[in-house]
């Protein structure tokens, strides 16, 4: 039986963003077939971009920029798609920053946050594999001690990647577990320690207290840590991602974002809105379940694929 050749990242990105791009490009094609860019068309374009989750302010600014050179002219759907991609690329470029491991840290401690169901644990598993491929030794800490499923899932990733997992019984104090994990990572000479955390937003004050305690414990052992605090966001929540960033920024010093499940949504445009509003580095995006479906974020490739154009 012949094996199906594995698709390259750009092909997977295009496929993964197809729901989002179909929503945006469909609207643009319907609007600009044999149509001048007049005030009404401009308003409708703005509406298409807003419903594509680019956010009101971003949509208005992009539309205004396009109008500057094209107002009153007959434009094709392709021309508008190219123009939108051109306008959103500079919004995305400053945040497209791969995660960097500092060898001076021993270990480099990465705290991973996000609401339950955002894809935190899976992201940790995929990142662990990729960091190992870059030559780093990795240890995982199952800091979401409230959910037995999260602990079990992390153990599975640990086995799959052949990297040690520090875990305790469900209900154990998360800060105590993190303390043990850092000590063990130091003893065993791990380059990177990835720490999973709870994400029960229903009980915000309890979660905040727990995260603050975890960070205090980390800082006791290493004042400069955590060296990264990643917030994992599920793209399918669309505009709700904004409030998640706001909430977690109050709890922890969020240093970067990872957006997952872009393949399962038509709301991929939210990444543009997040970049525009918060300016936080977007380290990686996920467009599938596979271990290779989480990759560093590339601004131009994303912008063009979002508008249904070849990257």
How are the SSEs ordered, and which strands pair?
Elements: H1 9-16, H2 18-32, E1 35-36, H3 39-51, H4 56-70, E2 74-75, H5 77-92, E3 108-113, H6 120-133, E4 138-141, H7 148-161, E5 165-166, H8 174-187, E6 192-196, H9 204-221, E7 228-234, H10 240-251, E8 256-260, H11 270-278, E9 282-286, E10 294-296, H12 299-306
Parallel strand pairs: 3-6, 3-7, 4-5, 4-6, 7-8, 8-9
Antiparallel strand pairs: 1-2, 9-10
Helix pairs in contact: 2-3, 2-5, 3-4, 4-5, 5-12, 6-7, 8-9
How would you describe what is shown here?
The structure is a single chain. With 311 residues, this protein is α/β, with parallel strands linked by helices. The chain has two domains: 9-95, Four Helix Bundle (Hemerythrin (Met), subunit A) (Up-down Bundle); 108-298, Rossmann fold (3-Layer(aba) Sandwich), CATH 3.40.50.300. Helices cover 50% and strands 13% of the residues. It is built from twelve helices and ten strands. The chain has an eight-stranded mixed sheet with strand order 5-4-6-3-7-8-9-10, with helices on both faces. Strands 1-2 form a two-stranded antiparallel sheet. Helix 10 links the parallel strand 7 (228-234) and strand 8. Helix 5 packs antiparallel against helix 12 (299-306), helix 6 (120-133) runs parallel beside helix 7 (148-161) and helix 8 packs parallel to helix 9 (204-221).
